[in-house]
């Protein structure tokens, strides 16, 4: 075995394996292209009109993209093959040079020549080795440039194709324009119901006597004969669409433009939020969900769901099942929940939480923060300065900063009350806090207070339940915390997403901050009148829980600071800082 200058210590086999992987990508893309081309040609058939032209244009573009993907993957595979071959050849030449020194005494890479002739032989072969290395370096530089060019082309293709893959740019030419009236179209086995313009309330029920699907739009009911696959189009306006939870058939639900609320059924639904800040609960079944453009909240609930945030700051919860979540553009929050999930942050500084199960987390572009949660997780940050918090990262994880945390299984003193959906959503947030160093400190401090109180027969408890919203326009009326003796209550709205750039778990952290003050007797209940005039009139307690400076010593002549009795790690801004989210600069 060669040593020193004659040993590259390079893994040509790994380059070959990577080349084979990209070759497989190329073949898969070409196979998908061929299948899609055949299917789209069959779909067109004798179809004519604007919709057919739009479909043809969209499918042709997709075929072109798959051809390009196959071509780029082939370029990458070829560059890796070239690099592998160059490394193998160079090592072979180095081994031949090394063999010419076999008669000279040595220990490892250190030679002990007996005379000047042997010294000359060593120097001559060392020169040969350096020339081999120099030649290899130049060859690998060429491979590296080819890879960089190909990766750039791949990223450009991914960026162009994202709107197709996440459902934000479907082919829509030829679809009827929104009208003021309800429209119902029956064709083949498809029934399309268009609600029309305005803020519509749309529900679907099944008549058990006739098996007809009864679509009710703003109080007026329409009967759809049995056997039709139903598509609901909300159209323009802030629509609410609700289909039966126990349904055994899947629906296609499209919110259209506006801030829509869509509730899926019990089977595999296809749900498109469209333009606007949408709230989507997919329900049971293996659903496909696309938020479209806007800051969307999406909850997969039961089933193995595929969810795409699209453009905007989105919040995605997979929950039960083996889910695939993709944030898309901007700063997104992804929570896998239970199951073996795959999370893709996309572009932007994303926060990704695997939850329970063996998850795969890919941050993508941007400075991402990931939390593996319980289970053996793979976390790959991608581009940017990425941070991973995990208890047992699996082989293949790669981040700029890896932090090992011990994650407790649960927090026994916390009780969650409410519907099945609320309990599962809240448990996912608590799992995330237990995986976070800041969240652990918060919950650990409350657990310690509970354990101490139990020793004296005054066991402190905490119950979390769903907030019943009274004023949808008031950002500060979506969560609360209150004491009742030694029993503390937190209420919060789990769909309260994108709160000043933060996900719902940030709101929960804020309310737990109040509980911290209740249990340790550090609550400041007087009105704030300090330096931050925008918060005059709010309770000092709100700035404590937020993590903002207060008059901590009741001396207006000293600078305001974050309350020493309520340190940053027990606050909303403490969690925001850890997650890389925008700081909340004021309570109001």
TrEMBL record:
GO terms for molecular function: calcium ion binding. Transmembrane segments: none annotated. Keywords: Secreted. Residues 283-294 have a biased composition (Gly residues). GO terms for cellular component: extracellular region. PROSITE patterns: HEMOLYSIN_CALCIUM. Coiled coil: none annotated. Gene3D superfamilies: Serralysin-like metalloprotease, C-terminal (2.150.10.10). Residues 283-307, 319-341, 382-401, 543-588 are annotated as: Disordered. Signal peptide: none annotated. It is found in: Secreted. It comes from the Bacteria. Residues 574-588 have a biased composition (Basic and acidic residues). This is Calcium-binding protein. The lineage of its organism: Bacteria, Bacillati, Actinomycetota, Actinomycetes, Actinomycetales.
